[in-house]
Amino acid sequence: MTEKIRKWFASTLSILFGSMIGVSCSAPAYIGPGSTILKGKVKDSDTLQVITNIRVSLISGFTNNRVSGIDGVYSFYNHDGNFTLAAEDIDGATNGAYLPTNFTVTLPYDFDGYTTNIDILMKTNG
Fold first, then answer.
1. Do 73 and 113 reside in the same domain of the chain?
2. Predicted pLDDT at 60
3. Are 96 and 44 in contact (CB under 8 A)?
């Protein structure tokens, strides 16, 4: 009797896991809303030189912050086609003083899976 149960259990597991593997190979898994990579550079609006140490915020039901690197680059993964980008100088006058800026962005409906480049131009404070 024990041997029959063991064989039945092994067969059941084989069918169960075999069908799961078949499903995972034949159909893509849904892992949540689509996303795009949103990236760009923060630049001085007059000279077009990159600006470091600018806090860039992506606002879309939640707020996600990044600080522009030495090359002025920022990047986010984004799941929404409508959002606001805000930029603020967080290091004072260390690399020049800049006025905060923000703007709303609306991407096309089929934005999922793309990389979107948006450079942020900032005006000097003074």
1. yes
2. 87
3. yes
Kindly provide the residue ranges of all beta strands, DSSP E only, lying in the chain, ordered along the sequence.
36-44, 54-59, 63-67, 73-78, 82-89, 101-106, 115-117, 120-122
C-alpha dihedral (44, 115, 34, 54), degrees to nearest 10: -20
91 & 115 share domain: yes
Total domains in the chain come to: 2
Looking at the structure, tell me whether residues 66 and 107 fall in a common domain.
yes
> What pLDDT was estimated at residue 110?
65
| pTM of the predicted protein model | 0.68
Burial call 113-126: b when 16+ CB within 10 Å, e when fewer: eeebeeebebeeee
Express each pLDDT in 8-43 by its tens digit. Answer: 556 654 554 554 444 334 444 444 455 778 899 999
